[in-house]
Amino acid sequence: MTIDPALVTRKLTLIAGDLDAVGEVAAKSREAFVASAFDQRVAERLLERMIGRMIDVNFHLLVEQGHPPPADYYTSFLRLADLGVVDAAFARRLAPSAGLRNRLVHEYDAIDPGRLFDALAPARTDIVDYVRAVEAYLTRGGG
User: Tens digits of per-residue pLDDT, 35-84?
Assistant: First the structure.
């Protein structure tokens, strides 16, 4: 089994593009964001796409390194620490994004616009760090 660097790089490039787009929404004031249902929908969709792609990358890295598929999306982030892609603390910080992705996709609960806005800045930082960590892992030869 072999990691496909082209596939992973393509996913990371798509994530980076969405990060740029969400940055435009995050640059607005909290009040403007909360008042704009359109900006909220844009942020939700971009987060859903980025997190979904991160999960795709997680599964690919794990399975192609000979590990069984994780039991769930949350665990896919935790298992990245086992591969040495990220440290355990960062993996634990990323893992709840799987739940956010599920809430966005399946519309389990209404998303509070203020909380969504407040989460954008830290999410953007964590996603940039995730992309860098995966790129570094690939540069090291994928384990």
Answer: 999 999 999 899 889 999 999 999 999 999 999 999 988 899 999 999 99
Please count the residues of the chain.
143
Contact (Cβ atoms closer than 8 angstroms) between residue 8 and residue 60: yes
Tell me the chain's radius of gyration from C-alpha atoms: 15
Residue 60: burial class (beta carbons within 10 Å; 0-12, 13-18, 19+)? middle
> Measured between alpha carbons, how far is 55 from 76 in angstroms, rounded to an integer?
7
Q: Which of 1, 7, 45 lies closest to 134, judged by CA?
A: 7
Neighbour tally for 110: CB within 10 Å: 7
